[in-house]
Design brief:
- The complex is a heterodimer of chains A (about 375) and B (about 350).
- In chain A, about 20% of the residues lie in helices and about 40% in strands.
- With about 375 residues, chain A is an alpha+beta fold.
- In chain A, helix 1 (about 15-40) packs across helix 2 (about 75-85) and helix 3 packs antiparallel against helix 6.
- Chain B is built from twelve helices and eight strands.
- With about 350 residues, chain B is of the alpha/beta class.
- Classes of the chains: A alpha+beta (about 375), B alpha/beta (about 350).
- At the A-B interface, helix 1, strand 3, helix 3, helix 4 and strand 5 of A face helix 4, helix 5, helix 6, helix 9 and strand 6 of B.
Chain lengths: ~375, ~350
């Protein structure tokens, strides 16, 4: 006989246990019915998942053998006890909120302007990542995708458009459309699965690629959207860092073409390629030659005495009022060397969360009963 | 609507920086999701408000203090912001509704609208001489902040795709109530996966985005074949879980399946958008039933995958290790045998 596992229920009464068994039996029968309806349409579970959808513990309805070996229906109290103790565990919501509050508290060890990075932080490390979507084409047996190398382009960057999929491409007609007006900005037919084209100064911000693709077995249409900007500012210089209390301060020079609220982000790396932190500074800037300071808090530098550099610099003019769209600028260099920095010059003063951040943590802690 | 009991002590404590507010002290502000019928009807402001109330009527309407209603035939960064978000933001700021703190409760595309709001509300309100809203957290049900491949399909069909694929066109028509055309795609353009994931992708404000995800379908599974991984019939789990990258995911957790089974999920989400925390998953909850009162089976937790900024796991494995190694075990949240996922969530507001 199988050894029963330890029970981790937070509280059980026989009456509550009866309700649990009744509801589980009811949900199992309804789940079985819904599973039968859905199964013929749903896609296969992804590889590695050995759990079938809507599967419920099958043991609930099993009989249990007594010592003589003959199958025997258990008394209700025993069935409740068995169903509750066998193969099912429950956890409290307060414990779940405690986990969330721990995660959030950990994040508040670092200021928002200087947050640590690990190699899996794709969104910070690849902020212009294009999310390619593969879709069914023709009669649906084949898939294809229209993709670009990134989401945002800034003049005069060229655009490269590619088609990939399960069918060979004989030729395609590429159109660029203004998403708002549907005016055609560009049209060209090519006998390949990719096309590079130059950007233009009069392009709108939001552009749709419409590809009418001649596959070997038929023609279909795919679309993909991207953004194209005229640069509103340029980072012209990044100076050597210095110590400023608990922060390593990195002065940045920026030539501003359009005044507004600017958000500058950059990833701090070691020269050998290890990501350290994402640095952010938001500041209102006027036109002309301006300066701001990116800061790396001692808590992210963690004794790093390597040669440092800034990469993945983003220059964003934020929306200042509803209806105004964000615009983007450029960095004169893709990588800005910072040299080495003696982190022992920094004061070891822990970051103090803002009142709002503390309140958010308190909300999670309250939900956790802390 | 629920009346709020706003403590003056909380307000003064906020001003002094010594805050210790309790759960239940915060105003609840609802942001609904995509409403397909509005693509054709193109409602006026009065109808948008009526539709917004009807959207939440089943449960959350009576639990909330305010709503932000918006029309699906418009775009988030355009008319949705100027004509619907902005007037409400001003009203909430001027009334002080969120001064002690607000929790946004969002559904579907409301998750994406909320992210755009979180990234811009401070700038907009400060530029207008108003106090920014103090948003404590969001509860995101069936969040479409990562976009939906159905949006990509719909736009493709509107642009001429799908001539040979009646099954695909039927599935989209079932979802939208009609076949999309170039004149009626509205917010579907924002819902395209690439567009959604780049719309205000990385807000500075570190508001916790708490996620609730489902795995059942309102459409007899006809749309699920077009969504990668597990899905709720409209959004795939890469979006509802808050994964940092779109993809084919089997769960919001690498350790527990949507139905609560404790088994390694090699297709589970392990990296999340910043400050996105998966909390509950319900295999019998669909896109729409996640925000309804009706109980739809037990729910499980996805917090195993929550990590610190270093990438280190929060929860020690030892308490559950025996279960992963020794057969079929299921884990459910206490109370979920009788309470719906929305009722459970609301009990913490």
């Amino acid at each position: 006989m199988k050894k029963k596992p330890l029970i981790l229920l937070t509280s059980v009464a026989v009456g509550a246990g009866m309700l649990l068994v009744q509801n589980k039996l009811a949900s199992q029968s309804s789940a079985s019915a819904s599973s039968a309806t859905v199964a013929s349409y749903e896609h296969s579970p992804s590889p590695g998942d050995n759990t079938s959808l809507n599967e419920k513990p099958a043991h609930i309805n099993q009989t249990r053998q007594d010592n003589e070996g003959a199958p025997k229906q258990p008394a209700i109290a025993e069935a409740i006890s068995e169903a509750v103790t066998d193969d099912v565990m429950t956890e409290s919501m307060t414990e779940q909120f405690a986990i969330l509050s721990s995660a959030y508290a950990d994040a508040l060890n670092y200021p928002s302007y200087s947050q640590p990075l690990n190699p899996h932080d794709t969104q910070w490390l690849e902020p212009e990542r294009y999310s390619t979507v593969s879709l069914p084409v023709l009669d649906g047996d084949a898939q294809a995708a229209l993709s670009l190398e990134k989401y945002r382009f800034i003049y005069p960057e060229p655009i490269t458009i590619s088609v990939s999929g399960t069918l060979p491409v004989e030729a395609m007609t590429i159109e660029l459309l203004d998403v708002e007006t549907h005016h055609i900005l560009f049209k060209q037919r090519v006998n390949e699965a990719s096309l590079e084209l130059p950007g233009k100064t009069d392009w709108p911000q939001e552009i749709r690629v419409k590809a009418t693709i001649d596959f070997t077995s038929g023609t279909d249409v795919l679309t993909a959207d991207f953004h194209y900007y005229q640069p509103v500012a340029e980072i012209t210089q990044v100076e050597a860092p210095s110590s400023a209390g608990s922060d390593m301060a990195i002065p940045v020079q920026i030539q501003v073409e359009q005044s507004g609220i600017y958000r500058i982000r950059a990833n701090l790396f070691t020269q050998s390629g290890q990501p350290i932190a994402v640095l952010t500074e938001k500041q209102r800037l006027g036109e002309g030659k301006q300066s701001l300071t990116l800061k790396a808090h001692y808590s992210v530098l963690n004794g790093h005495n390597d040669t440092l550099e800034l990469r993945t610099v983003q220059v964003e003019k934020m929306s200042g009022f509803p209806g105004e769209k964000a615009q983007y600028g450029i960095s004169r260099q893709a990588i800005w060397p910072l040299g080495t920095f003696n982190t022992r010059l920094l004061k070891q003063a822990p970051y103090q969360p803002s009142a709002e951040e503390q309140q958010r943590l308190d909300f999670l802690r309250s939900a956790a009963g802390q | 609507m629920k009346k709020i009991a706003i403590s003056l002590l909380v307000t003064s404590a906020l001003a002094s920086g010594a805050i210790h507010a309790n759960v239940g002290d915060y105003a609840v502000v609802l942001i609904h999701g995509f409403q397909p019928g509005q693509l054709q009807s193109k409602p006026d402001a009065t109808t948008v408000t009526q539709d917004g109330a009807a959207y939440w009527q089943n449960y959350w309407l009576s639990q909330a203090d305010a709503r932000i209603d918006w029309p699906s035939h418009e775009r988030i960064a355009d008319k949705i912001s100027t004509d619907y978000l902005w007037p409400k933001l001003k009203e909430l700021s001027q009334n002080g509704t969120c001064q002690p703190g607000c929790v946004l409760v969002t559904h579907s595309t409301g998750d994406l609208v909320a992210r755009y709001l979180l990234d811009n509300q401070a700038n907009w309100l400060e530029n207008a001489g108003l106090q920014p809203l103090n948003i404590v957290a969001t509860f995101d049900f069936a969040g479409a902040g990562g976009g939906s491949e159905l949006g990509d399909l719909a736009v493709n069909i509107a642009e001429g795709s799908g001539t040979w694929n009646s099954l695909m066109k039927s599935a989209i028509a079932m979802w939208l109530g009609e076949t999309p055309t170039k004149d009626n795609t509205g917010v579907l353009n924002d819902l395209r996966v690439a567009n959604a994931r780049q719309l205000a992708a990385l807000p500075d404000s570190r508001v916790p985005r708490i996620r609730f995800a489902g795995d059942s379908s309102d459409y007899l599974g006809t749309t699920s074949g077009f969504l990668p991984g597990n899905d709720d019939g409209v959004v795939a789990s890469h979006s509802s879980c808050g994964a940092s990258v779109a993809g084919d995911y089997s769960s919001c957790s690498v350790k527990v399946a949507f139905n609560g089974k404790l088994t390694a999920q090699s297709g589970g989400v392990s990296q999340f958008m910043p400050f996105h925390y998966p909390l509950l998953m319900g295999s019998d909850y669909s896109h729409s039933s996640l925000i309804q009162q009706a109980h739809q089976g037990q729910v499980t937790t996805a917090t195993d995958s929550v990590t610190m900024l270093s990438g280190q796991a929060i929860k020690p494995e030892t308490s559950d290790e025996w279960y992963w190694l020794n057969g079929s075990y299921y884990r459910y949240v206490n109370g979920s045998e009788s309470q719906s996922i929305s009722e459970i969530a609301h009990s913490y507001l």
